[in-house]
Each structure stands twice: as C-alpha cells, then as structure tokens.
C-alpha cells in the first residue's frame, strides 16, 4: 500500500511530499526497496527526527511501524560483563514504549532511552540515540549485538559490531539500508520507579563544576538550563540525577510494593491543532523559566518518580510540538569536547544575549565516544535547545554557532538538524569520507536517499 503524503520532521518545518509505503513483512520490505523508483526511498519510524532525516521529496518513504514484533526474549544470555544480562530480538519498527510495556513486568529495561519513548528500534540505531546515561552506558548502538540490514541490492545481511557496515549504519540516518530487526542487550531493574536527586545551580560554571565532580555517582544525569538568564545568573540550572530504584527503597506500605514493575505512564490532553503564532515568545518563556527555576528545590534527594516522569515528561502531552504554532521549531544540539569549556561559555552567552526563547534546553556530559562513523556523541558537553523557527535572523545566527562549534572541534546532531551546510558538516565528522565511500560502493544507484542526504551531500 502506498499513498502520496506530506511528510515533515517533529519540528514541523519544511514538509515535502513523498509516496508512503508500509511494509508488514521482510518480503514486502524487499519489494518496496526494489520498486522505490528513481528518487529512492528512506526508512521512517515514528517521525521523531526533528528535521528532514526521514523525508524524501518526490520519492518513497518506508513506514517501518508495521514491522513491530518481539521475536524472542532471552534472560539466560550473559551480557559480556560481570552482571547477568538479557537480550531481546525484535523487529525494527517496534517502539521503545512498546518494549517497555513488554519488558518492565519481566524486570528489564532498555539500555538507552532519549527524551521520548516514541522512537523505534530502527530509528534508535539509525540516529544512534543517546540518553541521560551516556557518561556511563554510551549510545544505543553500543548495546546492539546484531542487526538484519536490507541493502540496496535486495540482500539481507546480518551485521555485527566491529564491522565497517555496522559502524556506518549506527548513526548513518538510514542511508546504508533498511534495518529489519535487531538483538539488543537489556538493563535489569527491580522496580519501575526512579530514585531522583534534584538541586539548583546558580550559573553555568556552578553547574559544570557540580556535574564534573559528582556525575560518576549516578547512572542518569541531566540539567535543565535557563538560556534567557543573563549576567551573574547566566546558565542557572536545575540539575536532576538518579538511578533505578531498588525494591528495598520503596516505603514498606507504599502502594507500589504491590506491583513494583507496573508501567502506567499518565497522559494529559493533546495540544490543540491550532496555536497562535508567537505564543512562545521571549516574555512568556522568560516567565516560565523564572517559575521553573524558583519552584525547583535547592536540594532534594531520594525522591521516587515514575520512569515516564523522569525520562519522558513531554510524552504525557500528545502532539506537544504543536505549541510552537504553524511555523514549527528548530531543535539545535551540539557537543564540544572536554577542555573546550570556554567555547561552551561563549555559545551560551551568545544565545543568552540574543534572547532565544527556549524553555526546553538541557545540558549533559558525554562519556567515551561511540564507534559509529556519523555517531554524534563524543567526550564532552552537549547542549540541546528548541527555538521557534520564525525567530527573525535565526538561520544566520545558527550558522554562526555552527562555526563556533566547528572551530572548537565539536559537532551538531544530524537527527535534530534541519539547516546545517555541507561544508560545515565536513569539519565536524572526521569519518565522513569513509561513510560516503562505503555508501558509494554499497548503493551506487542511490536507492536510499533523503532530504537530509541531498542537503548535506551524504
């Protein structure tokens, strides 16, 4: 089945029209790739890439959500560490949300989750997603033991870590082929609750000092940062860190003890389909940031929170991306290495002085880099922020930030990008030529293509 539809990223900017194809089996997937036409095709999961990575103007978009089955769960297999591990073999179109529904009652959790659980396993590998635990656990693909990959010639390959094809596919934005299934290592948990510590940092330097000194004590760590604060308060933040709560951390008479592994995320009403332009302007976001900072505790330890509250607060509001209005928004995320803190300070100061109204800004620390040739994480500091797309002069301002990031030997995240220039990309990803060469050998006709790949000459 295929239909011509308008397709956009989660930021709702620059939609393009493509033929949507929905394979339900491996055989249908092979047929879809063979018949995708001159403009090629690109796999798409749940559409959470913010920019144009899962769009393909005039070509095909492969909706992978029909390949959504759990094949096997093996709780006896060792994880390669001293701790016992489990693995799940699942199709690429299954969401992390569905995996949590299946795995949590069994005492297992996904190894890495980003800020939304509505991401498919194929998308998690293609974008090599990271979460609040990168400083401990690395990116998602580090926990993938094998994957079945359908390449442009119609062949299905079983791809394993340590091979060029694996390293090109992890973070390769769907451009090496269509991921059909994967074997993923899991994290053991005793409850579906988190034990969370929260504290306030007075400015950016205070925040970085706290993170550098104590992040090693926590599996998960993230800081919300006020990018409208200026002067001595520049970079003031709310730092939230935690780990999976063990069963003995639950109060003896807590209701959760009766079903410690229950997964029941709540949901609020959906954002309206029409939101007036300019609702999230500097004044309204400034007020929100002031209230959010002041309501946070100066220091609180051991608070029990639901997994959904700690990891995915925005998932509780369906279609929350509508709140930016019809113009949509740009998500900008970059990383600069340790030792480049002055570059981070300059960029935060420029954003603050520019008055960019971002209420979803977070700062985290990355650990060891990942093997994917186009994987985003590298050891250092990563800042992500959302900005209304209709902000005057936004394009040229972000181009200037790109130059700052590249000069500091950092990079931007392709899964969130919608406007980077190809000459800047080359300065950020040192394995880019290797990726292009492998693509040329693997897919000489350009079967797998996207708006992103055309824009950045991938």
Description of the molecule:
This is FAD-binding oxidoreductase. InterPro entries: ALO_C, FAD-bd_PCMH, FAD-bd_PCMH-like_sf, FAD-bd_PCMH_sub2, FAD_lactone_oxidase-like, Oxid_FAD_bind_N, Vanillyl_alc_oxidase_C-sub2. Residues 13-189 form the FAD-binding PCMH-type domain. Keywords: Oxidoreductase. By secondary structure, this protein is an alpha+beta fold. It folds into three domains: 4-65 and 436-456, no CATH class; 70-188, Uridine Diphospho-n-acetylenolpyruvylglucosamine Reductase, domain 3; 193-424, 3-Layer(aba) Sandwich (Vanillyl-alcohol Oxidase, Chain A, domain 3). It has 13 helices and 19 strands. It has an eight-stranded antiparallel sheet. Helix 10 packs parallel to helix 11. The protein is globular, with a radius of gyration of 21 Å.
Short description:
Helix content is 25%, strand content 24%. With 458 residues, the protein is of the alpha+beta class. An 8-stranded antiparallel beta sheet has the order 15-12-14-13-17-18-16-19.
- Strand order, biggest sheet? 15-12-14-13-17-18-16-19
Q: List unreliable stretches of 5+ residues.
A: 78-83
Mean pLDDT: 94
What is the overall shape? globular
Query: Structural class from helices and strands?
Result: alpha+beta
Number of helices: 13
Question: How widely separated are the two ends?
Answer: 29 Å
CATH class of the largest domain: Alpha Beta
Percent of sequence in beta strands: 15-25%
Largest sheet: 8 strands, antiparallel
CATH fold call of the largest domain: Vanillyl-alcohol Oxidase, Chain A, domain 3
Q: Specify the CATH architecture of the largest domain.
A: 3-Layer(aba) Sandwich
Helix-residue proportion: 25-40%
Number of strands: 19
Computed over alpha carbons, the radius of gyration is 21 Å
Q: How many domains in all?
A: 3
GO molecular function: D-arabinono-1,4-lactone oxidase activity; FAD binding
Domain FAD-binding PCMH-type: 13-189
Keywords: Oxidoreductase
Pfam family, one: ALO
């Amino acid at each position: 089945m295929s239909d011509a539809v308008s397709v956009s990223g989660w930021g709702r900017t620059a939609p393009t029209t493509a033929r949507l194809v929905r394979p339900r089996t491996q055989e249908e997937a092979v047929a879809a790739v063979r018949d995708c036409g001159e403009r090629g095709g690109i796999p798409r999961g749940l559409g959470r890439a913010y920019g144009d990575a899962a769009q393909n103007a005039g070509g095909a978009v492969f909706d992978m959500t029909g390949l959504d089955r759990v094949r096997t769960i093996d709780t006896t297999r060792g994880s390669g560490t001293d701790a016992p591990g489990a693995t799940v073999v699942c199709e690429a179109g299954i969401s992390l949300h569905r995996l949590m529904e299946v795995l949590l009652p069994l005492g297992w959790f996904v190894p890495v989750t980003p800020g939304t659980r509505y991401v498919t396993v194929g998308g998690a590998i293609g974008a090599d997603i990271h979460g609040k635990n990168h400083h401990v656990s690395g990116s998602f693909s580090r926990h993938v033991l094998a994957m079945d990959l359908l390449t442009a010639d119609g062949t299905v390959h079983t791809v394993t870590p340590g091979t060029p094809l694996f390293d090109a596919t992890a973070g390769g934005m769907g451009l090496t082929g269509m991921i059909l299934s994967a074997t993923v290592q899991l994290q053991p948990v005793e409850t579906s609750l988190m034990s969370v510590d929260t504290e306030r940092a007075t400015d950016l330097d205070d925040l970085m000092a706290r993170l550098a000194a104590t992040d090693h004590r926590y599996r998960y760590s993230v800081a919300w940062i006020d990018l409208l604060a200026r002067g001595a308060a520049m970079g003031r933040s709310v730092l939230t860190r935690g780990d999976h709560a063990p069963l003995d951390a639950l109060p003896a008479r807590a209701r959760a003890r009766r079903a410690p592994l229950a997964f029941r995320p709540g949901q609020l009403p959906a954002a309206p389909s029409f939101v007036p332009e300019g609702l999230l302007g500097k004044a309204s976001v400034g007020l929100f940031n002031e209230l959010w900072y002041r309501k946070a505790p100066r220091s609180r330890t051991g608070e029990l929170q639901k997994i959904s509250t700690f990891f995915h607060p925005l998932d509780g509001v369906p279609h929350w991306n509508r709140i930016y209005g019809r113009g949509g928004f740009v998500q900008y995320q970059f990383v600069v290495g340790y030792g480049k803190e002055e570059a981070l300070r300059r960029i935060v100061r420029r954003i603050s002085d520019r008055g960019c109204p971002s209420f979803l800004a977070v700062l985290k620390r990355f650990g060891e880099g990942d093997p994917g040739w186009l994987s985003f994480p590298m050891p250092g500091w990563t800042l992500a922020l959302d900005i209304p797309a209709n902000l005057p002069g936004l394009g040229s301002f972000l181009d200037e930030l790109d130059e700052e990031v590249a000069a500091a030997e950092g990079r931007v995240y392709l899964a969130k990008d919608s406007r980077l220039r190809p000459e800047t990309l080359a300065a950020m990803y040192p394995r880019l030529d290797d990726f292009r060469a492998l693509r040329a050998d693997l897919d000489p006709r350009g079967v797998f293509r996207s708006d992103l790949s055309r824009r950045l000459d991938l």
